[in-house]
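Milestone M4 deliverable, item 7.
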Amino acid sequence: MSDQQGWTPGAPAPARPAQHDGPLSQETPVRPDGEARPRPDATSSAPSFAAIELQSALVRTQDQSRFVAPDLDETGAKPPLPWRRLSWVFAVVVALGIVAGFTYVTWFRNVEKDAEVAVVVDSVDPAQVAAQTPQDIVRDYFAALADGDIAKALTMGPRGGTGSEALLTPKVYAVTAALTPISDVEILTTDPAATEVDVRYRLGDSRVDTAVRITRLDTGEYRLTRTTVPVQFQITGSDNLPLIINGATVDQGQTFEVVPGRYELSTGRTLLEYPESSAIEIQTLARPDLTRHPASPELTDLGRSALMSAARESLDRCLAQQSLAPTGCPFGIRSDKSVVPSSIHWTLLNDPWADTTPSLSADDQSIAVLTIGLRLQLSVDYADGTRSPGQEFSDTVQARANMLGETSSDVAIFWER
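Output delivered:
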């Protein structure tokens, strides 16, 4: 079957015209590869090459399946920062902070002046400085103490430490002032700008010569460098023992702020007491940063006699028991032979109370201890009819008793060997 527009299979291909260096004619253009192509006839009905190319471009333009560049989404773009609004917010926050800080500093902050630093301000009114000299503040302090006005004395300077103020109450100081009244105060320093004032006074029966340190504030006023001194009472093994100082019951182991005067210790009990040597007398403010004062309780006369009587009675009861090992007693034996209980007889051969002195336990000073030596003899009949003529025993034992009771009948003895 022949192709009217082409060639027939098996037939030779049509011969190409010979190539020329130029166009075959004026109507035949030359292709870029040198092959001559017939120039299209304007009168021909076949489409021209340019028309075909133009039609192909139009088709490609209308082909919706080809790639189309997406439109940019303008709604996704980030809006610009509101710098003007942010500036206003920042300004308002800063203004509120300044107002809050000024309010706190002006009305709410509690500022304590450093009493150890003397600050002199040029703007201080000279008349105000002259109205209160170093001599005045020292004189006023001791005058307040002499009058028993502890509250007024404490306004004239800071405390000397950070201890308890349990001994700075009017009630406690009334006892202190009664024990050691302050009198005959003499100011010895005349320098109006002195930082230390020499003073002399009587504290009870004692004459005191001392120096008091002064601080000048930025207001031009003078104050004492300290109005109290810290004291600590060291009492070993007294955790169970009450501690009363000038009538005030306080906790053991504390540091206390005190003013010049005498401070006496008490247990508040009838059988135990702090001796007079346990009292402390603070004569001056010119003391170390902390004064440690040892104190030891002891038995009262009633406590000693109550302990001795209770120990005697307890030992007598032990001797009266017809038992080889009396219950709750500091002596006893064992026997391999059966005994007749009614034949058991204990005899005390010495006087254990002659050379003994009661004391308090080092571990717990509410416990009294009485150490005695015993020499005993035991007589007993055995069930087999034999009899022991008398065996002697010697031992050192302790009678102990809790002494926190109020009367002699509260003393109960327990024995230790």
